[in-house]
Please model this.
Amino acid sequence: MSPQNSRSNPVRIFAGDLSDRLVANLLGAIDPESFSTFVIDWPEGERVPDALLTIPGSSDTLSHVVIHRRSLSVAELSVLGQIRKAIEACDPKPRFELIAGDLVRYADLQIASPLVDRIVPEAVSAEVYGAREHRVAPEVTAGAPVGILTTNRPLGETLLETCDAFGYRPAILSGWSDPAVPREALLIWDVPLLSDRWEVRLRDQSRLRPILTLLGLADRTIVERARSAGAVACLDLPFEFEDLRNSLSRHAVMTSRPATTHGSESQIRPAAHERRLRDFARNLRTDEAHRIRHDAGSHLARYDSIGAGESTERQVRKIDR
Model:
């Protein structure tokens, strides 16, 4: 059955394994009204449904195609290529996004990247799409105070400039009790996941204020733990510029007491300033990704060398015997 026959003029097409609880929650975030999305069940490990390969080329309303895969096989990467080819024949072209699960290999992401317009980590996908659907006009929350708590100075400065460019009143805090922003203001926390008390701290502080958590290389389990501890939203590190904008629009709150970090009213910055910040954030994300991959590669190489050494030692022992 093709999309044209099952849903007349859908706004978006979504395909994923509907038996996955995360996918069910994600659908509610993508389309809260459940009337404008043509949903295709594509169980993990099974062949692609024919309906997914039949993109309506003459639809004036189709603007979005979203695919969720917890892992990516060679055949599924080929399917992404077929969908991209079908999309290129559309006029206008819908946006094509892949929600990548925690079992997708980095090498497969490199292959998939040029085939789609955006790759969204599945762990934070509900927040990304939910904030996108619920975003409000910038002037509604412009001027709201936003606290920033991080031990990473470059990240803190990037967040400060970015929030300021969006029209908020940001401040980098020295600690949870820093009075630079009102206690009830939204706080962005770069969570130290290596600490064994981060959940306790989050649970205590989320009773006092809304907290948006930034989680390094987040997976399903980490995000579930953060949400259970009281986080109003979770974004991955490195984050996307537009995702932060949408989450701020969704969760930042005006307070009765003004923030004390700026002497004058914060203004929404011009597009050129936003472009500069966007480039800076992209470079930061790239540098961080390279660092993470380098560190991971170093660790793997070390473990491989240890394993090889142990294997050689065992062989020598066998010969000696």
Q: What stands out?
A: The domain at 3-133 is CATH 3.40.50.2300 (Rossmann fold).
